[in-house]
Amino acid sequence: WGLGEKYGFVRALIQRCEDAADTSKMLQAKAIQAHSTSVVTTNMQSKTTTQKMKGTLALATVLSIWVCSAFIIPLWLHFFGWRTLVLYYVYRWFIPVSYWPAFHRFMKWMDIGSYFDQHPTLHAPSDKVLRERPFMICHHPHGVFAVGFNTAYSTSKDFNVRVHWIVFFGAFFVPIAAELWGWMGSAPSSRWYMEHLMKRSQNVALIPGGLEECTITTKDKDRLYIKRRFGFIRLALKYGYRIFPSYTFGETSLYWTCTYGEKFRLWLNSWNFPASVLMFGVRGFLPDPTVKLRTVVGEPLDFPTIEDPTKEEIQMYLEKYISNLKSLVQAHSEEPQAVEVM
Question: What pLDDT does 25 receive?
Fold first, then answer.
């Protein structure tokens, strides 16, 4: 009995030691897991901070070039003289700025959308659907700086189909701005160049509202300038293109805008004068980073090929496009909203 009790005590002691060892291993495992979680969290926070810095730098650079475009030529003339500007134009006449894939990939890597607290989203057809036939993406609204257009398409990692981005033709007369847009694959918004691309069945993306839609931008209101835009419809009919309507929700919430003197500013637009919108951002000319940008692409409109469409045919297809665009907005709007079409 004494030996049994002794051995029983030994067995109990061994069991207690094993339990203590198991507890120690469990605590050690928890400590390692907690440390790993802390490291992963820290790395994620660091990565998020790095991405946001990259996005802010990329957006600030692009917007700075837009804002300073009006001053680049006067400053060039002041510091370098008119002869160097003439040489620049001669050089660009013989060697036009062209698409630079490496630079475009770099801008996608910088990821402008990372500037926002919630990364902008894009709901678009698959690449397979987009490649079925030549297409034209018509985007709305323009907003102040077309931020939604840039985050959804030209600098987005989620959009990988080769497209020529149509931008204000005046940008291609400004040094630095011409290089920026040309290297990213943009093209001037001229009828001649559009036809040059569409004759070769190249995909294009544009903002039909143009300067006027920028001018009428009103905070938190959806206003589209499209009733007098016949050019893109005529070209789509002439070359039998497929049109995808596109809309960015949140674009008009990025800036505070002044609507005073709208008629006068629209008159300036009729002379291709772009700087006719008065805006205020939360960080100078940077937009509100808390705004959620959501871009949706609607069902395509397949246009027939009509080499010389009549005014009535152009008007009919424009009305179809506007109806399709309104349906897209109503179908994807998170809350009921009216769209003012001018």
Answer: 55
